[in-house]
User: What shape does this take?
Amino acid sequence: MQKEYLDGVANLTAFVEGSNRKFSAPIEVSFVDVKMFLQDLEVKEYSCALLYECQHLLSPLEEQEKQITNFYESLEKVNEIISILDPEAQPTTVLKQKAQDLVAYQENCKKALSLIERNSQSILQCVASSEVLQHFHQSTFQKKVTQVQITFQVITLHFGA
Assistant: This one.
């Protein structure tokens, strides 16, 4: 009986230590990673503070992903418009419409970038100010934001956004 008790305590201790390691392991600040981590927390009914902080972070991360997608979709439209093979062969009305579309998609990129920058500051501040999210890594998140900023700068330099 005592051996069974000691085995049970040892198994429980190993489980708790494994869970603690898993929930303090580095997590990337991204919508997908935080959502998966949050799902693990809800199954395990783990730390209320950690669960709350992750839930609080999930919505801004989802919005960030939407804005990044919006930026790249608008960028794709800009590239389609500027890749007209022979502008002289196009009727004037088509060229005027393409020029208006180009300006509109460039504005969409600009607005999306503004939202991305604002959201990223909020997300990074949330992670930095939280004691329970200190094991969340921000490098990949920051690289994504920087890549959008650089891409917008290239658009601005080449096409005058």
Notes: Residues 41 and 51 are 6 Å apart (CA to CA). The chain is about 80% helix and 0% strand.
